[in-house]
Automatic annotation (TrEMBL):
A family per Pfam: MFS_1
Taxonomy, superkingdom: Bacteria
Keyword Membrane: yes
Chain spans, region Disordered: 379-402
Extent of Low complexity compositional bias: 379-389
InterPro entries documented for this protein: MFS, MFS_trans_sf
Keywords, in A-Z order: Membrane, Transmembrane, Transmembrane helix
Keyword Plastid: no
Transmembrane regions: 41-62, 69-87, 93-110, 131-154, 160-179, 208-232, 238-259, 266-282, 354-374
Protein name: MFS transporter
Length: 402
């Protein structure tokens, strides 16, 4: 996959930007808590405003890419990021709250751009492996970004850390603009393939099923993070949380690489259902060594599940609306991450840390079941056998080996 022209620089720049974006919430939290000397609840409100902006802005920016092109959108997002991050250290809290929402609304759409470019640069046979690599890059950014911010915050002022995060986001956006990867394949640039169909023609039960499962896996993952911390806090071993999360991330990378090398895909609902099932028993671990073992199963299934969601969206979205569809996918993930922690937190409060793993796993199972039922209600299921097989391939059938 790395031999595909343009793929290596695309994934490299994407890794840089995504690491910075996964760290932006931590950078803002430390600024509010340390520099403004305010509560974690106040910091959480700023992060929530940023997340809400990202969730709302994803489809809008994707629609702009479909209509105006990649570089226009990058210019419209990089410039506000420069202004926001440069002024973070001088903004009072109330202004920062509103500015964070605006910054999220105009966040550099690196995830959706990367997924669109992968779809355009690869053949159908290559795409699953490419999306597996993309999921691996996402896991690496999740492991590196927040950790770097925490280390830097111990030696620098929170304002300088915020500048560094902003600089990485801006540099990555500029790098993607210079690379200018294709958003459509060569056979999709003219004629009917480039036309923009009406939303009701493509945003049906099939796409709703995939977006629901994307929401579910994000909700599960954010809940697992919180359950890990709660379990270790109860055991008096919270300092080992980084080790457990590192094991989770490394096994996810391994799972993504193995899945990308397989000759046959697996249904999205099945992967997500298995992910939910293996997450629930992790609640029986009560200290960090056993918790490291308990999260291996979840880790191995995380990147494969994320990659199948991306693959399904790329197959179901026509070329003329692919930007909007990938933006919706990013919004679904943002909403899942935003809701996962409070819901799992409530389960922990009313029960025990084990209840957090149970709630996260059940959320994944519910999303998998909903996605399965929605896909079965699709009109594609009633079409001819040949067209049905092709339409059902992204979510719940196994495609023939290339």
């Amino acid at each position: 996959m790395l031999a595909v022209p343009g793929m290596t620089p695309l994934l490299g720049i994407s890794l840089l930007v995504r690491a910075a974006i996964t760290a932006d919430a931590m950078a803002l939290t430390m600024y509010v808590v340390l520099a403004l000397d305010m509560s974690y609840a106040a910091a959480g409100a700023v992060v929530a405003a940023l997340t809400a902006g990202v969730a709302l802005g994803g489809p809008l920016l994707g629609r702009m890419i479909d209509r105006r092109g990649l570089r226009t959108v990058l210019l419209a997002t990089v410039a506000p990021q420069i202004v926001f991050w440069l002024t973070v250290p001088v903004q009072p809290y109330v202004i920062l709250l509103g500015a964070s929402f605006a910054a999220g609304l105009l966040m550099v759409p690196v995830q959706s751009v990367t997924r669109q470019a992968i779809t355009a640069m690869t053949t159908t046979a290559q795409r699953r492996a490419a999306f597996a690599l993309d999921s691996v890059a996402g896991e690496l950014s999740y492991m590196v970004g927040p950790a770097v911010v925490i280390l830097c915050a111990a030696k620098m002022s929170p304002g300088v850390v915020a500048w560094g995060v902003g600089a990485a986001i801006v540099a990555g956006g500029a790098g993607i603009a210079l690379l200018n990867p294709p958003m459509r394949a060569e056979d999709e640039t003219d004629g009917d393939a480039a036309a923009r169909p009406r939303r009701r023609e493509w945003l049906g039960a099939r796409m709703a099923a995939v977006l629901t499962m994307g929401f579910g896996v994000a909700m599960l993952l954010s809940g697992v993070d919180l359950a890990i911390v709660a379990t270790l806090q109860e055991a008096g071993q919270v300092s080992w949380a980084a080790m457990v999360i590192a094991v989770f991330g490394v096994t996810s990378v391994a799972g993504g690489l193995v899945y990308g090398a397989l000759s046959r895909p697996m249904p999205t609902w099945l992967l997500l259902g298995l992910l939910g099932l293996v997450t629930i028993p992790a609640g029986f671990a009560h200290d960090w060594p056993w918790l490291c073992v308990a999260v291996i199963g979840s880790g191995l299934l995380t990147a494969p599940t994320l990659s199948t969601v991306s693959d399904a969206v790329s197959r179901l979205a026509p070329a003329g609306v692919r930007g909007e569809a990938t933006g919706m996918q990013a919004s679904a993930a943002s909403a899942g991450f935003a809701l996962g922690s409070p819901i799992v937190g409530m389960a922990i409060d009313v029960s025990a840390p084990a209840g957090g793993f149970a709630a996260a796993g059940l959320a994944g199972l519910l999303a998998a079941l909903t996605g399965y039922l929605l896909s079965r209600r699709s009109p594609a299921a009633a079409s001819s056998p040949s067209s049905s097989a092709q339409a059902l391939e992204p979510c719940d059938t196994v495609a023939p080996a290339p």
